[in-house]
Amino acid sequence: MTYREIQMANDDIHCHNKEKADVRFQDGGLRHAAGACCYQVVRAAKNKELSPEGRGFTYNHAPMVAWFHGKFVYEYLGGPSSEHEPPSAAFLCFSEDGIHWENPIEVFPSIDISSEPYRGPKREYIHTARIPCIVHHRMGFYTASSGRFLVMTFYGLSPDCHTAPNNGYGVGRAVREVYSDFSLSPIYWLRYNEPGGYNKENTDVFPFYKESEDEGFRQACRELLENRLVTQQWWEEERLDTAFFSRPDGRALSYYTLPDGRIMGVFKDSMTSISEDGGQNWTPIKKSVSIETASGKVWGQKTADGKYALVYNPTADSAHRWPLAVQTGDNGVDFDNLAAIVPETEPCRYEGRLKNLGPQYVRGITEANQSPDDMAMWVAYSVNKEDMWIARVPVPIKSVWNQDVHDRMEEMTEEKLRNTWNLYVPSWNQAQLSKTSDGCCGLCLRDCDPYNRTRAMRLFRPGSLVEIKAKLKVGQVKSSGIAIFLQDRHGQNITSAVIRPDGWVYMRNAGLDNKLCRYERNEDLHIGIKADAVENRVTVTASCAGEEGSKSGYAAASVYQLERILFTTKYSLPFQGLEANGRNGDIGNLPDADTKTEETVFWIVDLETETVYE
Questions:
Q1: CA pair distance 262, 463, nearest whole angstrom
Q2: What pLDDT, in 10s, does the model give residues 406-454?
Q3: Which site from 324, 350, 400, 544 is most exposed, i.e. has the minimal number of CB atoms within 10 Å?
C-alpha cells in the first residue's frame, strides 16, 4: 500500500483523485463540471439605493437554500461590513427559476437583549444593560410531514469581533413559518439557550412557539425538535446542552443516506461520522484525510441520478477559499474526478474584518426538504463573505464532453442551454437567449459591472487539432473588450480573439494585438480559430460586412489537448491572489464599486467545433 492508502484505510470517506487543485488559480486549474451555471443572488453595495436589502450591508454570508411551492427560497445573514458586527439580520430571497431573484426581505431582524444573563467569554467587555445580538445559523429550513415550511436562525452574542456567536453562550433559536403564498408568520423562539443563561423570563423579544394559536405551526415545531438527525446541525450554537444532541461535537453537519440506509455525516475540517439508526447515535467523529479542506464547509448529497456528490474547497488555505469544486461517486464513500463549479472570483470590493476570499460555505437542498425535478444539483455559496450566489450543476456530473458542438441558438431552449453551457452571471449582468436587432436568436451576454464579467463557456471533444467557428453580433463594446479564449483542461489560453471598443477585432497572442478586421454593430461577425497543439500553431480569422482578416502564429502556450471555448464580456478582471488577505480588514474599498459602467452587449448566434484529431 502507498502511504496515502495507509492514511486513508480507516476513513469513512475516500477521495481518490490524483489531480490536486492548483490554488494559484481560482478554479484550481481543474476541469470544470459540464453545464455548471453560476448566478449571483445578491450583489453587495454600500450605496443604499443600489443595495438589494436597502441598508448598504457589505458583509453577507452563510447561505441556505430550499425549494418550496415551486420557488427557490434562499436565506443568508448580513451586517454592515465585518463578521460578528451589529446590527445583524437574516434575509430571504425568492426565485422561480434560480436565475432571476427578488430583492431580499428581512426574515429575522436585528435585536437587543438583556446583557445580565450572559456568562460567556469577554463578559468584562459588556458595559450596557442591553447588548445587540449577532445572527448565526448552520441550518435554515425544515419541511414538516404536514407540509408546513419553517425557516430559522440563531441569535448569538459577540462582546467583540473575535468572540464567535456560535460558542454556546448565545440567546436562542428563532423560527417562523413561510406560508404557501410566501408570506411569513410572526417570529417565535423555538428554543431558549438555557445552559447559556437565557430563558423565557429574561428573553423578552419574541414569544415562545407554544404561545402560537396555530396548532399546525406548533406541531411542526414539535416535530422538528424531536428530529435528532436534523437538529444535530444546531450543536455548535447550543453545545452547552449536552443532553439534547446525539453527537457531542462536529461543526456544520451535512448528511446523506448511504445505499445501505446508514447516514453519513460530513462536518467542517474534513471530519466525518456515521449513524446506523437515523441520527440517534453516531460513530466517534474522525478526520477523513482525503477530504483536503480547511475551515470552509463541506456539502454532501445524493444526486438525482442515484450517485453522490461532495462539494467543498479543496485547499488547506482557509484565507483563500478557492476553488469551489465537486467530486462524485457511486456509493457515498468513494469519490473521484474533482471538477470546478465556480470558474473565477470577483475581487473583494469592500473592506471588512474576517472576510475570507473566494466562493465558500456551500450548502445545498437537504434530504429533509423538497427538491425541484430538473435533474440538477443546486448549491448556494458566499463569495468573499460579501456576495451571495447559487450554482446549478446538471447530473450526471461530468467534466469531459465527448462530442463536437453544433449549437444554433435559433434551435436552443433555455433548458438545453443550462445543461450544456457553463454560464457565470453577476446580478448586474445577463446571459440568456434573446432576439438580436434583426430578429434572430442568440445567447445574449450583457455587462455593466465594474468589477465582474459575464462568462459563457462551452466544452467540446478534447483534441490536439481543432477548428472553431462562431457567429456573433456585437451591440456595444466597453471596458477592456469582448474576449474569446481557446483553452486546455487547465484553463491555459493558447490564443484569443478580442473585440475592442475601437471598432477592431484583434488576435491577441503573447501580449501582442494583431488587427484582423473592423466590425460593425449588429452585423454578423464570424470568428474562426484553427489550433494545432502538436506544432503549437494557431490561426485566427475574422470577417464582418465584407471585410476579412487572418493571422497565424505560434500558440501562446504549449498544451496537450484543447477542450473548451470561453466567451467573456471583459478581457480580464482585477485579480486578488494569494498575497491578498481579507481577514485583517485592511484590503480596502475598491473605487466606484457601486457605479454601473456603460454596457457591453453581444450575442453568440452559432457555435461549431470540430476535433479533427484527438
A1: 43
A2: 999 999 999 999 999 999 999 999 999 999 988 899 999 999 999 999 9
A3: 400
What does the alpha-carbon distance between residue 298 and residue 307 come to, in Å, rounded to a whole number? 17
For the record, the C-alpha cell of 68 comes out as: 418550496
Dig out the grid coordinates for 391 from the structure.
450554482
CB 482 within 8 A of CB 604: no
Grid coordinates representing 375 are 435533474
291 contacts 299 by C-beta, under 8 angstroms: no
Strands 482-487 and 524-532: unpaired
Report d(CA 27, CA 356) in Å as an integer. 16
Please report, to the nearest 10 degrees, the dihedral formed by the alpha carbons of residues 235, 241, 244, 246 taken in order. 50
What would the DSSP string read from start to end of 82-142? STT-SS-EEEEEEESSSSS-PPPEEEE---EEESTT--STTGGG--SSEEE-EEE-S--EE
Could you give the CA distance from residue 126 to residue 122 in angstroms, rounded to a whole number? 8
pTM over 0.85: yes
Question: 211: which 3 cell numbers?
Answer: 404561545
Who contacts 306 (Cβ-Cβ below 8 Å, separation ≥6)? none
Residue 127 CA, distance from chain mean position = 39
What is d(CA 198, CA 240) in angstroms, rounded to the nearest whole number?
A: 12
